[in-house]
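Assemble and predict.
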Amino acid sequence: MSAAVPRAAASAPAQLVPASRFSIAQLTEAYNQTRVDYLVPMPMNAARLAEYIHSYDVDLEASVVAVDGDAILGLAMLGLRPGRSWITRLGVLPSARRHGLGWALMQGLLAGSDARGLTHNVLEVIKNNAPAYNLFVRCGFHAQSELLVLRRPPSPPPAPASGTVTWLADDAALALLAQRNDQPSWITENESLVRAGQVQAVTVHRPEGGQGWLVFQVQTFRGLPMLLTRLTLRTLTGQPAEVGAALLSCLYTRFPDLDTQAENVAVTDPHLPAFQALGFVEAFRRIEMHRTLGGG
Amino acid sequence: MPDILVVEDNPDNAELARRVLTARGFSVRHAPDAESGLQMALDQTPDLILLDLGLPDADGQTLVNWMRRLPTLAHTPIVACTAWPEETAQRMVAAYGCNGYIPKPINVARFADQIAGYLREGQP
């Protein structure tokens, strides 16, 4: 694929080419340059981007880079899963903005997604990023839900959880995910957790009644456990706020020294009071947006 | 001469901080990511760490957490530098044990005074 950006859309000469033509290092450098002036820039190194591509099924052949000769002007990536695609890492260099490249990159991704027969597209945009939000609306997306990115600095829980607690790992932990009844975002879908690996879980059965499970992953820094992430909670019986608090208390009784990032917790998640009770703070919000091929 | 460790992935931001602080008589070292920032802080304990919260290999909160676990860095002043909204920045700074934060883009006229103020606060 190599498509010229239409004159009407872009005043700068640019071509869209598959991201697979570039090394991970080149894509990382370009991605960081597109975000240099963002409110939440979220820079990456090559190892982190490679892990991101793997965990979230990003297809570099379906992802696009806008180039002017040898110069990268912008890029956008596409995750592919059965029946659906996910748009991510969209960005244009500050010096190349306001020439329609964002629109062109989006059209390049959507054309590739549509051609693959994927009828459902999703993406997330940081709340209050009006230019990006408006671009996505013009591309046919509508807001679906509001998601929270939460952080919790290391500390033990306010009180230890009581009840029967069981720790699980690997396949036993992954098996719990089949019981999910929420509507996770792309990065918290079961596929993402499976691909990222290193899944652990805890189940709790409270003496007062109520049971549930929590699946999570431990990320390392310098080879040592540092960050709890990809938290997924499910209440099987009882009140989600109470069961969730019990599960999180178990987690922090076992890992009092670890930092936590919980990404894309829906504002409607019934476990949200449990996160708040355990000391999570809001970092920022995202808006999840959907587009369905053929409308609807 | 106070030793300031600037952990910042954006080379332009790092260079601006270096120029302003060296003009004030501070010694400045620069680390472009969390890994090298931690190593440089361990090699020679700085008088103050100026920390970008968005780093390419690990985010700033994770790095603060790591540094605060280490006896040699547990009490070193750490000042976050971020473009996050004030409310968010204050929440994060308080939660993670930074000594304060300086909004991005830095105010060149005030920046050295801000750092000097945090250095004074950090003195035993």
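Chain B touches chain A through 25 residues (CB under 8 Å).
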